[in-house]
Amino acid sequence: EIVLTQSPATLSLSPGERATLSCRASQSVGISLAWYQQKPGQAPRLLIYDASHRATGIPARFSGSGSGTDFTLTISSLESEDFAVYYCQQRSNWPFTFGGGTKVEIK
Amino acid sequence: QVQLVQSGAEVRKPGASVKVSCKTSGYTFTSYDINWVRQATGQGLEWMGWMNPNSGNTGYAQKFQGRVSMTRNTSISTAYMELRSLRSEDTAVYYCGRYSYGSDYWGQGTLVTVSS
């Protein structure tokens, strides 16, 4: 199965700062990678699909890039509601594995 | 509006089975796959499997093969996930999600507790 490694595990930033989250795959997934945001007690929320396409209703401050094995989620200027855990997921091969998550916390 | 509404919390003893439902509305049920994902307390997301509501075709993560079944009732736009031979490590919140290129709509989650 494809292993997704997210880094860093925790990112401590202030509102207004730029956040850069990484997701590395153990083998190529092409562009078949999605990013999700999850807040405590809530279901995940789809942010990005196919590496760089924003899902419906997602603000432009969220952007995704990458292909193959290296992917990045960038939040250009953190808003208070962006402090959460972020997961990547690949759909290139079954099982559609998730990364371990990156927690973005308030510094 | 699109909604996925899951059944309520369940408590089971080890060795028992649980069946979680996911009732959908606001879209054509047979037009989108359904994924099931679980999350143990304080842990990450774990993909369990996929079902095509139109054909009934399924695909399960190897970890759950032989213990899980994903089915549907198209007349009531509802998907089901049954997990058998429960053990304590199956205690988690189970989510259904409508899936195309990613899960864009999710159920609220169902807590399944396995305890003797």
Commentary on this structure:
The complex is a heterodimer of chains A (107) and B (116). Chain A contains no helices and 10 strands. Chain A has strands spanning 4-7, 10-13, 19-25, 33-38, 45-49, 53-54, 62-67, 70-75, 85-90, 102-106. In chain A, 36% of the residues are buried. Chain B is mostly beta strands. Chain B contains no helices and 11 strands. Chain B has strands at 3-6, 10-12, 18-25, 33-39, 46-51, 58-60, 68-73, 78-83, 92-99, 103-106, 110-114. Chain B is globular and about 40 Å long. The mean pLDDT of chain B is 97. At the A-B interface, β4 and β5 of A face β5 and β10 of B.
Please indicate the percent range of residues of chain A in DSSP E strands (runs of 2 or more): over 45%
Category from helices, strands and their pairing of chain A: mainly beta
Please summarize the sheet with the most strands of chain A.
Answer: 6 strands, mixed
Runs of chain A in which pLDDT lies below 50 for 5 or more consecutive residues are none
Write down the secondary-structure element order of chain B: EEEEEEEEEEE
> Kindly state the mean pLDDT of chain B as a whole number?
97
Enumerate the strands of the largest sheet of chain A in spatial order, edge to edge or round the barrel: 2-10-9-4-5-6
One letter per element, helices H and strands E, the order of chain A comes to EEEEEEEEEE
Overall pLDDT score of chain A: 97
Task: Write a brief caption for the model.
The complex is a heterodimer of chains A (107) and B (116). With 107 residues, chain A is mainly beta. Chain A has no helices and ten strands.
Topology (SSEs and partners):
The complex is a heterodimer of chains A (107) and B (116).
Chain A: E1 4-7, E2 10-13, E3 19-25, E4 33-38, E5 45-49, E6 53-54, E7 62-67, E8 70-75, E9 85-90, E10 102-106
Parallel strand pairs in A: 2-10
Antiparallel strand pairs in A: 1-3, 3-8, 4-5, 4-9, 5-6, 7-8, 9-10
Chain B: E1 3-6, E2 10-12, E3 18-25, E4 33-39, E5 46-51, E6 58-60, E7 68-73, E8 78-83, E9 92-99, E10 103-106, E11 110-114
Parallel strand pairs in B: 2-11
Antiparallel strand pairs in B: 1-3, 3-8, 4-5, 4-9, 5-6, 7-8, 9-10, 9-11
